[in-house]
Amino acid sequence: MKIAVIGATGVLARHLIPRLVERGHAVRGSARTGEGEALVARLGAEPVRADILDRASLDAAVTGCEAALHVATAIPMPRGTGDWAVNDRLRREGTAHLLDACARAGVGRYLQQSIAMILTAATDRAQTEEDEAAGSGRGASSIEAEAMVRESDLDWRILRGGSFYGPGTGHGAEWLEAARQPGYAMPGEGDDYISLIHIADMAEAAAAAIEAGQGRAVWNAVDDAPVRYRELTTYVAALAGGPPPATGGPRRLASFRVANAKLKAGLGWRPRYPSYRSGLAA
Asked: Which residue, among 215, 203, 200, has the nearest Cα to 266 in the 3D structure?
C-alpha cells in the first residue's frame, strides 16, 4: 500500500515507518520543517511538507495514498507535565482536518492513534474495548477525536495505546535515572494501576492495524501485565540499585487497567515485551 504517516517525526512514527517499509509498503511522511523532512527521508519514507493543523497542506500529504495514519502528538516535556493545549488541538482540529483531506483524496483506510487512559471506569478487572470510555482533562480530546473518526465514512481503525516507554519516549532509561535520585517516590500510595506498552510493540500494533482486512474497529494496544505503581516503581528502584521508593508522589494519571485480548485474537499481534520486566531489559 501507499501509506501516509501524519506526524512522521514523532516518537511512534520513528519506530513505525521502518516497520512499514520492511513490510513492503511505500510510505510518505509529513514534516513541518526541512530538518524533519530529512529525518523522514532517513527513515526510508518520502518526505512531504505538511502540518495537520494547516488543512490545505494535508492534500499533498494524502493524495495518491491508499491509507493514512494520524500519529501526530505534542506531549509536553518533561513527559506528563506542562501545557497540553497543542496536543488537544492535534486531536480535535487535526483529526477533523485529516479526515476531510482523506475524504477529498479518496483515501480508503484510516488509523487514529488514541489512548487507553480513557478506560478508567473501574480497575476491579482489566477494561476492554466494550467498556465505556471516560474522558476528562487530558482524555477528553481523545474521546472527541474517536467520535469524529467513528462518524466518518472511511474504513477507520482506532488504536488505543497504553502508556509508552522505551527509546525516545522519556520513559525507560529515564526511569532508572530518576530512581537513583533522592526523593524518588511512587504516585500516592502506589495502589493505582498503569497499563504500559513498549514503543516497539505499539509500532507493530499500528502496522498490523492498518494492514487488517476488516476495519471499523477499536483495539487496545497494551502489554500483558497491567501493574500497580507500587510494584513498578519498586522494581525500577531495585534495577537502578537505589533505595525503595517513598510514597506520596504526584498522581498524574487516573488508574487504568486494560486488556489486549481483542488485538491478539483479531490481528494475531503479540507483544515482544509482555511486561515492563522484559521491556526494561531491552
From this structure: 215
Contacts of 61 (CB under 8 A, 6+ apart): 4, 6, 28, 30, 48, 50, 68, 101
* Dist CA 89 CA 86 (whole Å): 5
CA distance 71 to 168: 15
- Candidates 158, 117, 159; CA nearest to 134 is 117
Burial letters 199-219, b for 16+ CB under 10 A, else e: bbbbbbbbbbbbbbeebebbb
- Yes or no: say if 164 and 175 are a contact pair by the CB < 8 Å rule: no
The full set of domains in the chain, from first to last, is 2-164+196-222+259-270 (3.40.50.720)
Which segments of the chain are extended strands (E)?
2-6, 26-31, 46-49, 67-70, 109-115, 155-161, 163-165, 185-187, 193-194, 196-198, 217-221, 227-228, 246-249
| 55 touches 89 (CB < 8 A) | no
User: Is the predicted pLDDT of residue 77 greater than 90, yes or no?
Assistant: no
Closest Cα to residue 144, out of 183, 90, 78? 90
Beta strands 193-194 and 227-228, pairing class: antiparallel
Mean pLDDT of the chain: 95
In this prediction, residues 240-261 reach a mean pLDDT of 96
Give the pairing type, strands 246-249 and 185-187: parallel
Residue with cell 494524502: 62
For the cut 60, the answer to whether the pLDDT of residue 14 exceeds it is yes
Task: Name residue, grid cell 467520535.
Answer: 147
Stated pTM of the model? 0.96
Q: Nearest CA to 193 among 231, 234, 236, 228?
A: 228
- Region of residue 137 (phi > 0: left; psi between -120 and 50: alpha; otherwise: beta): left
